[in-house]
Specification:
globular, single chain
Length: 185
Amino acid sequence: MEKLTLMSPRTFVASWSLLLPTIAWAGWGFAGAWQGAGLVMAGLLVWTLFEYAMHRYPFHFTTQQPVLRRLVFLTHGNHHENPNDPLRNLMPLLVSLPVSAVAWASSLALLGSAGTWLFLGWMTGYVIYDLLHYACHQWPMSGRLGIALKRHHMRHHHFDETGNFAISAIFWDRVFGTRISSLKR
C-alpha cells in the first residue's frame, strides 16, 4: 500500500497536461467567455479554501484508533516523516482522481454543465498547489513571493505542524489565525 502513496514529477506533469485541457474541452460551449472566466476564478478561490481545510483537518487529524492513525500516516504523515522525498511531495493519482471526480460531480450538480468551468478552476488550483508544494521542498525558490511561500511552508514542517497549513494562498493562515509569524515559542 505504501507504494501507492508515491508520485513522480514526470507522471504528475504528463497526467495533468492531458487532463486539464480535457476538462476544458468537456466544458466547451456550456458557458460564455465571461461566465466561464468567472467560474474558473471562483473555482480557484474554492480550491484555496479546500486546500487549507484538508491540510489543517484531515491531514493533521489526531486519533488513538490504530486504523485511522495509519490512514492519516499514509495520506500525509509519511510526507512529514520524510519531507524532502521527491516522490512524496505530490499527491498520487490514486487520491487526486477520486477526489476530483467527486468535485466534478458536485460542480455539475450545483451549476449543470457550466459547472465544468468551476471544476476547471478548482483543478487548476490543485495543480498550482501541488507544483508549489513540490517546489517548496525540492527547489531553491527566489523572488519575494517564492521566498515567502517556501518560508511559510518550511515553518510548518520544521517549527510547528499546528500552523501554516496553506500552500498556494498563504493569506488563509492569517485569516484563520494559524499563521506562524515568529520562530519564538
